[in-house]
Amino acid sequence: MKLSEIAPGQMKDVLGHFCSGITVITAMSPDGPVGFTCQSFSSLSLDPPLVTFSPARSSTTWPKIREIGSFVVNVLAEDHDQLSNGFAKSGADKFAGVDWTESISGAPVLDGVVAWADCSLWAEYDGGDHTIVAASVSDLRAYRERSPLLYYRGAYHLIDRHPRHPGR
User: Fold this and answer.
1) How many CA atoms lie within 13 A of 42 on its CB side?
2) Which CATH class is domain 14-158?
């Protein structure tokens, strides 16, 4: 099968078998806080400390955050499915009723997240219908007592509290 013969639905279905976490990328604009839900996030480099995520080219929020240049990647907790859904919508006040504190850069850190990273735009690359963003990390924190919200095969899932190979 040629690359061009792979249908978007087939790609989404097959790659949906890879479990991922859910993040919300937030920043502080002159008009107030902005943010969007982003599933495609990962660690990129330890030295220098870099992370990567990929907003859709159709995103109306990413261009605003790009212009600001600094932002927080918030890793959502298991009870944040409504938060994920809210930040995935366009046109609404995504921060209505959402509690948050400011990071060192001034970007919103959402209350109750599993982890967060305060970042600055490092580079962008063409990713087809998405933009691949590399960001330098200036501050970060994790809360080990919280569990992440997972996304698998088109739905939210919770982590198994009895891992086969205990983590650190």
Assistant:
1) 6
2) mainly beta
pLDDT string in tens for the chain (168-residue length): 455 788 888 888 887 777 789 999 999 999 999 999 999 999 999 999 999 999 999 999 999 999 999 999 999 999 999 999 999 998 778 999 999 999 999 999 999 999 999 999 999 999 999 999 999 999 999 999 999 999 888 888 888 766 666 655
Q: Does residue 132 contact residue 62 with C-beta atoms inside 8 Å?
A: no
Tokens coding 167: 């983590």
Spell out the domain ranges in the chain: 14-158
Write down the number of H helices and E strands in the chain.
3, 12
Q: Does the global pTM surpass 0.70?
A: yes
